[in-house]
Every structure is written in C-alpha cells, then in structure tokens.
Amino acid sequence: MMPSAPKAFSRGISSRTTGSSLRANKLRIFDTLLVSTPRLVANKAAWKDPWIRSKIETIALLLKGAIEAEIKVGLKMNIREKDLPNLLQSLPSLRNPTVSGLSQSGWVAVETIIDEPVVRELIPRLKAFGAEGIIEYPLNKVVY
Predict the structure, then answer these.
(1) Is residue 83 part of a domain?
(2) Would 96 be classed as within a structural domain?
C-alpha cells in the first residue's frame, strides 16, 4: 500500500523563497541550515569590455530593483483636498508621495511606495484621515 503524500515526505531539506509550497503541502520549517543571497559574478575580461560591462550593469540594476521590491508595496488612495495636509504628514514614501488631481473637483489621488510590514498599521490610519478607495499592490522592481 502506497503512503499518502504528506507521510511519504515527512522529512527533508528544501530551498525556499516564500514558503508557499511548504504551506500548500502542510509542511513546516523547524530549522534553518543556510541563508544565502544572490551574487552576480563576471570575469575580468568581460568586465573590461565596455559593451559587456554595460549589459552586466543593466542586469545588476534590474536584479537589485527586484530584490528591493520584495520588501515594499505600493499604495493608492483618493482623499479630499482639504484632508490632504494631515494625510501627507503621516504618509511614508521613498521621497514624497505623488499627488494628482481627480476629475471630480476637490479630490486628489495619492500614491506612495512603503515598506510592506508597515501597511497593516497604516491603512486604518489612512482611512481615519479620510482616504477612500485604498489599494495595496505588489511591486516588481524598485530602482533608485
């Protein structure tokens, strides 16, 4: 008789990024053996060639942007213009939030990029300041 899938793989080592496959298979992490980080390596001859070096630098820029995006989310919301100053005082951002006028006078749209762990505490405060239509979205890249 064949054992069920969870019993067949009762122990093992897994390389993971998000843990979603572990959760999907009702597995848990009980110890960390190794923590690794990505590395981009180029040989000296490639680095001396301006065209190849440019390509390597582009790849590095995009990889760094993807890594940085893992810990950030975007937030969009609408708010009355009269409530905007109070909202902006407590709204974190990379530099400054983007504020755009809406087709309905007296209202603006606000967009910002923030650290993901902050969002759970921030959204109720934004709502209290009068923000509506609050949208949280994941990011693919954040390039500085």
Answers:
(1) yes
(2) yes
Any domain includes 56: yes
In whole angstroms, what is the distance from residue 131 CA to residue 73 CA? Answer: 17
CA distance 83 to 141: 31
**Chain centre distance of CA 141:** 8
| Domain count along the chain | 1
Report, as an integer, the average pLDDT of 79-92: 94
* pLDDT level of residue 38 (50, 70, 90 thresholds): confident
Residue 138 domain flag: yes
Torsion of CA 14, 19, 20, 22, to 10 degrees: 40
pLDDT digits (tens, 9 = 90+) for 97-133: 999 999 999 999 999 999 999 999 999 999 999 999 9
Query: Which residue type sits at 123?
Result: I
User: Residue 43 phi/psi, 5° resolution?
Assistant: -80, 165
What is the domain extent for residue 142? 41-144
Residue 65 is part of a domain; what is its CATH number?
3.30.70.120
Confidence bin at 10 (pLDDT 50/70/90) = low
